[in-house]
């Protein structure tokens, strides 16, 4: 069983995102779903017992290796130098909440600087866009979901996303 734990741990560490049970089984070369679940539960318990800064998280039928919340403050300085500055993140939040978002609507909310934000977000792979008359339709990409550790189905129902959207919208109007 230790070999299976090691394979699962390596896959979860390498991907850095939630993986569905069947995908995790394929990547770790474990065919039995029952056995895979048992190994995951044992691995999760191992992390809890050794009081590690890491933990195994299970949401619905997806699994991920993550940093415990109490240690996130250590990584904030690393993440503050992230590739996305705050205004760009706010533009991305508007697009994610409204998606599919019309670029002209986003620009109306965020101002003309949003064109630069959208360009950067497309270059970084967080957005896709397609022509829609004289404007564009914007959608978040899979990279967005992976990077921000968001489950696609729960994005709009998340209270935090709604709260952020309202705050950004209010702040944008104050400019």
Q: What proportion strand?
A: 15-25%
CATH fold-level name of the largest domain:
Arc Repressor Mutant, subunit A
The gross shape turns out to be elongated
CATH top level label of the largest domain = Mainly Alpha
SS content category: alpha+beta
The percentage helix is 55-70%
H-E string: HEHHEEHHEHHEEHH
CATH superfamily of the largest domain: Winged helix-like DNA-binding domain superfamily/Winged helix DNA-binding domain
Distance between the termini: 58 Å
Oligomer: single chain
Widest sheet: strand ordering: 1-3-2
Mean pLDDT: 82
What is the overall number of helices? Answer: 9
How many domains, in number, for the residues?
Answer: 2
Low-confidence spans: none
Radius of gyration from CA coordinates: 19 Å
CATH-level-2 architecture of the largest domain: Orthogonal Bundle
The tally of strands reads 6
The description of the largest β-sheet is: 3 strands, antiparallel
């Amino acid at each position: 069983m230790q070999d299976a734990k090691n394979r699962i741990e390596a896959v979860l560490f390498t991907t850095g995102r939630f993986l569905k049970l069947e995908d995790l089984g394929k990547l770790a070369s474990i065919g039995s779903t029952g056995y895979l679940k048992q190994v995951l539960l044992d691995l999760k318990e191992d992390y809890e017992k050794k009081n590690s800064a890491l933990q195994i998280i299970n949401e619905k039928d997806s699994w991920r290796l993550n940093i415990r919340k109490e240690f996130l403050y250590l990584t904030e300085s690393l993440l503050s130098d992230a590739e996305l500055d705050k205004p760009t993140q706010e533009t991305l939040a508007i697009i994610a909440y409204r998606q599919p978002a019309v670029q002209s609507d986003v620009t109306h909310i965020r101002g003309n600087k949003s064109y630069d934000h959208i360009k950067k977000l497309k270059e970084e792979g967080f957005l896709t866009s397609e022509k829609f008359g004289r404007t564009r339709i914007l959608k978040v990409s899979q990279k967005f979901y992976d990077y921000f550790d968001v489950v696609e189905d729960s994005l709009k129902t998340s209270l935090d996303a709604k709260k952020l959207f309202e705050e950004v919208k209010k702040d944008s109007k104050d400019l």
